[in-house]
Amino acid sequence: MKMKFFVTVFAGIALLLTSCSGNNNKEILKLTNEKTLAIVKFNIDDVIKKLPKEKILADTVHKFSNADKEFRLFVRADELGIDTDNPFYVTTESEKDKFITSCIFWLDDEVLFLKKFKEIYSKELTIDYEKNLVFAEKEVVGAFKDGIFVLSNKSYDPYTSRTRQYDYYYNEYEQEDMSVSKEFYANFFTRKAIEDENIIDNIDTALKDDADASIWVNLHGIVSNVSKGYIETLAINRLLIGAGFGFNLTFGEGSIQAKGESFFNDDMKKIVEKYYDNKDINYDIVKNVELDNAHLYSIGFFSTDFIKYFIKEAGFEATANKFLETKDLTVEGILSTFNGQFVMANYGETTSKIESYDGSFYDYKQPNTLILFGLNSKKSDKVMNLFNDPNLKLDDKFFRNDKYIAFSTDQKNFNLMKSNKPAKNSKLNKVTGVTSYGYGSGKELNEAMKSNVKNPIEEMISTSKISDGKAVSDITVTFEKKDKNILHYILGYE
């Protein structure tokens, strides 16, 4: 049975997610195992209250048609026997060279749910309460136990599998079976749950009760899956065990609040704390960088010592040095040249004269960008001389002094640097105690997104900091109109 339900739910997740402990995740933790790569949590009751429900259900010609049954099912969850006091979860786990995605939610009236499901999908579901299985005719399509309803589908792992295998002998394609097995559903509630207390705490912390949507991602599991287990043969693996990150969204009146946080084991926390303790932005780095005219910019700090440590732990230092040998450079020499302070800015577009094959010139538009890196006092002359290499064709596209090196597509951005005149930067909010600060103007963001939303973005502000070995980020997007929840505008109903 092909369940389009899952595809649309995932599309909804992508839409909604487009970046403290004690949360109500007790039941989902019992269903999380070592193969789980990600868990998404919707506080469905909160989300439904923020949606323009009546307009969506009455709409037949606008954003959603009568054929969009799955989204309507989500919107009407509180009327269809789904218990909206409990969260709606979506989990993804690895299964050989494929993924299995499961929608997990609670029913408070399974008879009503089965009736409505049949009305919407023209498919009759039945529940075998003894075997905890859900059937569509004779096919097992889900699992059910203690009010928890599970529907799953299988998809290809884009990194390690092929969607079909070609049989050269018969000159035809062999399609793989992509149905979720009966055994998967039969064992769903009895599989061994994850036992690592650190990971359990991380998941519970990431999946928030006070956010509309949140996600926990098993970073170590994904890296292991992509590398086919190779990462586990490296010394650096001990630092990545249990690593993950969380991200959550809250939709407000005229705003979207997004927060992220990293999760590391104790060994990794000590390393991060060692290299980032008392490290934050030094705003002197933008003394000669004009930001008032920038459409987008980011100022921050990254630890070059942390990067050096990771390269060495991963066993890549010797290989990298061998590659750099022809330039008489080393990883140590390159990274020791920079102090970790950086600036990235976008000023819109700039026009350059480009010579064509016949010797004539034409105007070429490209992004007007600037990237600047702070330099250590004991910088490597070999690294600095590298930028004079004619093969790089940098010409007048870079500028350096004793404090920084900058690259730009428009040499006018170097004027203040050459004259050592300070920039005004009257709009810059010098937030302290953070490792990065970013700003985006509404005009640039609206144009980049080609948005037709009738509530344009005013600005986007982002900050991140590293404290006690943990990275935390905060993004706030504000919109011009603040009269209704932003979901009304995103979905096109205002």
Structural account:
This protein has 494 residues and is of the alpha+beta class. 28% of the residues lie in helices and 31% in strands. It is built from 18 helices and 20 strands. The protein has helices at residues 4-17, 26-30, 44-50, 53-58, 69-75, 110-121, 182-186, 197-206, 219-226, 237-240, 266-276, 304-313, 317-324, 331-335, 381-386, 415-419, 442-449, 486-490, and strands spanning 36-42, 88-95, 98-106, 125-128, 133-136, 139-145, 148-156, 164-167, 172-175, 213-217, 244-252, 255-263, 296-301, 338-355, 361-375, 398-400, 404-408, 436-441, 457-467, 470-479. The strands form two sheets. The protein has an 18-stranded antiparallel sheet, with helices on both faces. Helix 1 packs across helix 5 (69-75). The longest helix is centred in the first third of the chain and has 14 residues, at 4-17. The radius of gyration is 27 Å and the shape is globular. Mean pLDDT is 87; it is low at 1-21 and 162-170.
What's the topology here?
Layout: H1 4-17, H2 26-30, E1 36-42, H3 44-50, H4 53-58, H5 69-75, E2 88-95, E3 98-106, H6 110-121, E4 125-128, E5 133-136, E6 139-145, E7 148-156, E8 164-167, E9 172-175, H7 182-186, H8 197-206, E10 213-217, H9 219-226, H10 237-240, E11 244-252, E12 255-263, H11 266-276, E13 296-301, H12 304-313, H13 317-324, H14 331-335, E14 338-355, E15 361-375, H15 381-386, E16 398-400, E17 404-408, H16 415-419, E18 436-441, H17 442-449, E19 457-467, E20 470-479, H18 486-490
Antiparallel strand pairs: 1-2, 1-10, 2-3, 3-7, 4-5, 5-6, 6-7, 8-9, 10-11, 11-12, 12-20, 13-14, 13-18, 14-15, 15-17, 16-17, 18-19, 19-20
